Amino acid sequence: MKFLEHLERIKDEYNFLTGQLQQQRAELEKMNNEKETLTRTYLMYCEMSMGLNHEMVRQQEIVKRYTAIMNQLVQYLPAEHQQQAMQAVERAKNISPAEISQIMAAGSMGGMPHMMLPGMPPIPGMPPAGPMNPFAAVAAAAQQQQRNSESADKRDAESRQSGSCPRSSSPLVGEASSSKKPKIEEDNDELEIDVQNDDNNVITNGNGSAPPSAIRKGDGRESTNSIESSGASTPSKVRNPLDQLNLGNMANLSNMSALFPPRMLPGFDQARLAAAAMNSTPLLNGKPAYSFRTVDNGPMQPTVFPPDAHSAQGVPKSMHKRLELPHGEVVCAVTIAADNSKVYTGGKGCVKIWDISRLAEAPRTPITSLPCLNDNYIRSCKLFSDGNTLVVGGEAPKIYIWDLEKQTKKFEIDTEAQACYALAMSQDHKQLFACCADGKIVIWDLVSESQIGTLPGHNDGASCIDMSSDGTKLWTGGLDNTVRQWDLAQMQKLTQFDFNSQIFSLGCSPQDDWVAVGMENNNVEVLSTSRNEKYTLHQHESCVLSLKFANSGKFFISTGKDNAINAWRTPYGAQLFSTKETSSVLSCDVSKNDELLITGSGDKKASLYEILY
């Protein structure tokens, strides 16, 4: 009997355990199902997060472009309306998340195709605000200001009839007139722009400096007067006094996809997108990537640098400042003598020559000064290899050729253009190539002192130029967003590279088939001349104003409006070293032995550096 009882108890326990096992299996299956649901939810969340990050970056770029458009339009408003429009823009920049929610809630009830910002008076005759375009607030403010102005004019007329003193309809006009804004003056049908800001920067170009703004005249020609301002030192076809307006909290609006159309703006820059947000930036060795490689027009990929990128022979480690040369004017062009004995700095109306053979004595005065271009800014100066002849061009129709031994002018060349932005010479120094403001590349024979050809050039000003290492091809960049390669034997264009940004500087590697291009969109593009490959480098925080290869071809220097001097490994752009000056760095040159670097800046001086290996 006891044996049977034990069997019954074992049977009961077995049944109990079997039931528990089935229950656990059911629980496990339920958990597996929940796990799959959570996994799908997690993947969907990750996809949404990546999409939101991408959309945020995209909307930031859209906001930036819309802001630039608004800034261009504001300057065409009457002076008494500009302040109100700018106040509306500032109000939009500082909108808070709570106010955004309020706007969206009001929009869900109103549904009208305009949006008023909190605190802005309603427009008479308009229904409640809807959730469409926030920039309509600027137009609304302008309309309101116009009505206020008309009412004030009416009151002024009434007060004049009654003999009372009229009130000003725009109390901030005095403040606006004293702010840092360009003055556009008209004299004899010619427009010129003069911007005087405190930090005295200038937009320049030439062999390593960016072109000036092109202000259209009434007859369709372009003014090439110098622009001196850090706030306006991004060259463009139309100079905008509000280009440097800080977006501030405007980025808070960037995650509101309902405010903007979902499509990508034309010309959106992939490299800027890749480097815009840390969350979406690829990491290499734990650091954000700044060099991106493109092959056969494929996708842009972060560059993996070789192990010897920073340690190979002939690659510099750093540089040390040796001298500051107080030129006294903005230094738009610089060059170093082949024997490292002298430095030539070009500013406004003259080239100054400095003896640097005794670096320890730190000379503070030039040994001589050559008057050039009738007090116009010099954009480029080229030195013959024997050191006896200097060619100077800039914001004037003339190009000067100087005999440095006699310190006399040999002859002048008339470009028949308003300016010559950049110069290049053939290897035998018998031919001169000049980038002109009308986009043409004009060629002169320096022996016969005569023009021997013209390349059709760019659709807008030709801004930079350099010769290939074999001397058979010419590379030019322009404000028409193109880089072009020319066959000098056939005098015709071989290839053309189209970009979404103006080209400010350009250099050919002396040893390899690479051309580096400095651009208005802050990027440096390194192009292969023999295969469909390029590198996009994004370290500058503003436009790249000058660029120069070392004679070894192993590295090159770029400088920018962000005050930065960057050294890059050819061609993939590993950053070797970087430093900053106190103002925009407008021009640069590397000595023949790659031991010295000279820069010209907006704070009216040149700086001489020793490159350390």
From TrEMBL:
Comp. bias regions, Polar residues: 198-210, 223-237
Compositionally biased spans, kind Basic and acidic residues: 150-159
InterPro entries linked: Groucho/TLE_N, Groucho_enhance, WD40/YVTN_repeat-like_dom_sf, WD40_repeat_CS, WD40_repeat_dom_sf, WD40_rpt
Principal place of residence: nucleus
WD repeats: 413-454, 455-496, 537-578
Compositionally biased intervals (Acidic residues): 186-197
PANTHER family: PROTEIN GROUCHO, TRANSDUCIN-LIKE ENHANCER PROTEIN
Name of the protein: Groucho/TLE N-terminal Q-rich domain-containing protein
